[in-house]
Every structure is written in structure tokens, then in C-alpha cells.
Amino acid sequence: MAIDQYVAEYRTRDWQEIEEGRLRIAMIGLGWWTLEEAMPAVEQSSFCETTVVISGDAEKAARVREENETVQRSLTYDEFHDGAATDAYDAIYVCTPNAFHKQYVETAAELDKAVLCEKPLEASVERAEELVAAADDGDIPLMTAYRMQTDPDVRRMRELIQEGAIGEPVAIEGHMTQTMLEVASDDVNQWRVNPDLAGYGASVMDLGIYPLNTARFVLGADPVAAQGSMRSKRQAFSDVPDEYASFMVEYDDGVVATCTASQNAQLSGRFSVIGTDGELTIDPIFLAQTPQTLRLRVDDRTVEIDSGRRDMMGDEMTEEFDYFADRVLRGADIGPDGEHGLLDMRALAAIYEAADTGERVKIA
Question: Counting Cβ atoms within 10 Å, is residue 340 exposed (0-12), middle (13-18) or buried (19+)?
């Protein structure tokens, strides 16, 4: 392909098919991510609006309702499970600690509501299997919230790979690190370092899943085996194995991804795909740092594709919600679906097992 022509034809929303419509969303879990990222993103969206907020704290939910013009009802978790206000929303967004996801998806299936569920799907493979089964039994749309899959730069990277811009992909390098104790300082009891709430660990479950899944998306390949190494030094991470983690994932097309993740390191994210003829890199990535730039390097030439976006997190979340609405309103197949998220849960379990045993672990 002609690289200059590709840059000139840079486009966003290659997935969009609707021109109008409105998906009414109930926000479940009113932590900082919902309030500071998800709800503002929905407000900026073309096809969504927040009409219901749901929390374990009735006063907090009522306050959020009063502060947001489109919100019609505020509910407690018990009221949601009892089926209150079902005429006020069409879909739910689940943003609670991982171990609570299943119960809300099960209720949504009973109420015939579509679901956008934050990643990872649950705290364990077994619970994720039950979550996906509930959605299947209820015949409801279930999307795993991988916002990078609707990020225009990531989608262009995937397209370039498919068009042979770097030849045959042979390796991937990715990392995501942050200082969690500062970034999420207002989270109740720091649930990400509580195995009962987070699952197998803190860093790979919450951060390592980004390069793991982004590699799946851009390659169009699935993980088949993993190796890993983890350590925790500080008291805050004493209950989880992975304050610092590195891992390798083999994909079914033969490509190997080498990744690092930490909840206690400099804010940083980078993702590169190395091919036989070139290299594609997005740096920074994952953590809303700007300017996010996609770079294509072939021989001694480097081309930068800058989308011009500067509110990265808001833009990514808005893309994700509008994509979800596009699929639900049209009754179209949705991806990444529950089965997609479930395979990542199996990959996460394999990474933690590999780090614990020191052995290569196949992903079932």
C-alpha cells in the first residue's frame, strides 16, 4: 500500500452504521472511574445518555442524580436487583470491583437489558464462565469493555498490519505501569490489592490485560500459552503476587508478546508490533497520555499518524459507548463479546500460574 495515501485517508469510526438513536444507560458503581470518565464520556457521545445511577450508597446515588441533568432515577443495588425503574434504561454499564460483576450481569439477563461490562470480566475463570452463561441464557448483548478496540489509532494499527505495511508480524512488546496508590487514592479500601475483590492479582489483572488484549485485536489471533515472573515488595501489595510483573504470551499465529505491568511504577504505556519489513508503535498508549501518536517505521523512513485528539481518555470512552450503542440499537453482533473476555480470563489465570510455577502454561 502507499503509506502517504493511507495517512491522507485517515478516518475514525469505521464501525459506525447508525446516524441517529439513543441508548439509555444505567451506571452500576459510582466510583471515580464512572464519575470522572464514563459519565462525562457518555455526555459527549452521539448515541448514549445516562438515565439511571446505581450505588450501594443511596445518598451518593441521589446526589449524582441531582448533579446530572439526564439522570432520571437513582437506585440502590437491592432496588436494581428487584427490577426497579426498568422503563428508565435500556442497558447497564458495570463498573464495580471485579468480583461483583457476575451478580449484575445475571440480573440484567433476567431484566432483558444489554450489558457493557468492565474488564476483566470477573475475579476468576469460573465466575466469568457463569457470567457469560447467564448472558447467553438470557439472550442479551454482552460486551467486554476493551476501550482500546475502538481507539482509532489501534484500529489503524490493525488495518496497517492486515494490509502488510510491516510484512509478517513476528513479535510484540507492550507495557503499562502506573502508581495506583496515587491514581486511585479515593477507591474504597484499595480493592485492586484485595484478592477477594480483584481476583488473581493487582497489576496483570488490571493493567497487563491491556497489552494482552490489544495484541489479540491487532493480530486477529488468540493466546495459546504463557510464561510469567512476578514479585511484590511493599506492604500495600502484600496480599497480591504482582506489584511488578513481566510475562510472555504466545498467540496462535506464532507471534510472541513480551509485556510488563506494575501498579507501582512511573506512569507509562507503550505498544509495538515488529514485523519482517517494519515496525508499528503507539507511544504513549493505554493511560490517556497525550499526544498519542501512531508511528510506522519501514527501513529508514518513519511516518507519524496523529489523530489530533488530546482528551484521550474521554475520546476513547466516548468511542466505546457509541460503538456499544451502534451495535445494540441495530441488533447487530457485538465484539468484543463475553466469550472474547472469557478467553482473556483464561489467559490471565495461565499467566499467574506460570509465574507461580516457573513453567510454561498452556491456555485452555
Answer: buried
Task: Give yes or no: residues 160 and 120 share one domain.
Answer: no
| Domain edge (last residue) among 114, 130, 146 | 146
Do 190 and 288 have their domain in common? yes
Instruction: Determine how many CB atoms are found less than 10 A away from the CB of residue 331.
Output: 8
pLDDT of residue 251: 98
Of 145, 151, 293, whose CA–CA distance to 209 is shortest? 145
Among 95, 120, 146, residue at a domain's last position: 146
User: pLDDT tens-digit profile of 239-257?
Assistant: 999 999 999 999 999 999 9
CA-to-CA distance for 105 and 93, rounded, in angstroms?
A: 10
CA atoms within 13 A on the CB side of 169: 28
Q: What is the number of residues in the chain? A: 364
Number of structural domains (the chain) is 2
Q: Are 177 and 262 in contact (CB under 8 A)?
A: yes
Closest by CA position to 72, among listed 31, 24, 37: 24
What's the grid cell of residue 233? 515488595
- Regarding whether 224 and 158 lie in a shared domain, the answer is yes
- The grid cell for 113 is 437489558
Reported as a single tens digit per residue, the pLDDT across 348-364 is 999 999 999 999 999 98
- Taking the alpha carbons at both ends of the chain, their separation in whole angstroms is 37
d(CA 200, CA 128): 13
| In the block, residue with C-alpha cell 431484566 | 111
13 falls within a domain:
no
Confidence at residue 265, expressed as pLDDT on a 0 to 100 scale: 96
The answer, yes or no, to whether the previous bond of 120 is cis (omega within 30 of 0) is yes
Q: Write down the residue that cell numbers 437513582 correspond to.
A: 74
